[in-house]
Design a protein that fits this description.
It is built from 1 helix and 10 strands, in the order ββββαββββββ.
Length: about 210
């Protein structure tokens, strides 16, 4: 009897968004949307919600010895629930798998450190932006160890730090079958997709 093996093909993709179907609760001069993906800004000063008139020192380069505080605010192309509803109009069988945050630290183009944060809330909320506190590290800080661990790598100089907000969805099951080495191989394709809601990068100089 031929054995059957099941494979899951993970597709990281950028699905098309219909801009006029997205809901933005809080307009912002800092929100920049490119090809359906939002952005992230960074500062050495706190970035409170609805306090943009007080934002200062927004920049994309920080130093390990001088900058003891680093904050970020991610701006989405719309509220998370309107983004999901937009895709549901295109894919009626879509289901949410999870929403998470990914932080990466790269040196010389190679990712040396990565941290994944799952959402603290359940379900799909109506946020259209989110704040992350990177430094100083404490119980309430996000991506703990992403920056403070870098000196231990022994690589001084410019590190590139990337922050992503990602939505993972299931578009509905599709299968293809083929025979390989006298086995029937069933592959599940076009099922799980991860797409970026927002991303931003800054240089972190380890001195």
């Amino acid at each position: 009897m031929k054995k059957i093996r099941l494979f899951l093909i993970l597709l990281i993709t950028s699905l098309s968004l219909t801009a006029n179907a997205l809901v933005i609760k809080d307009q912002s001069k800092y929100r920049k949307i490119s090809k359906g993906v939002g952005n992230v800004i960074f500062s050495s000063k706190p970035l409170p919600h609805q306090g943009e008139d007080k934002y200062t020192d927004i920049r994309n380069t920080f130093y390990s010895k001088k900058d003891k505080e680093i904050y970020a605010r991610a701006y989405f192309p719309g509220t998370l629930n309107s983004i999901f509803d937009n895709y549901k109009n295109q894919y009626p069988d879509i289901k949410l798998v999870e929403i998470f945050q990914l932080g990466e630290a790269s040196f010389g183009g190679r990712v040396e450190k990565s941290i994944v944060l799952t959402n603290k809330q359940s379900g799909i909320d109506d946020w259209d932006q989110q704040r992350y506190d990177l430094l100083p590290e404490g119980d309430d800080s996000d991506f703990r160890g992403l920056l403070t661990s870098l000196p231990s790598f022994g690589k001084k100089g410019k590190w590139e730090i990337a922050i992503f907000k990602i939505m993972k969805v299931n578009l509905g099951k599709k299968y293809t079958a083929s025979t390989e080495n006298d086995q029937v191989v069933v592959r599940e394709t076009g099922d799980i997709h991860e797409f970026i809601v927002a991303d931003g990068r800054f240089d972190y100089i380890v001195e």
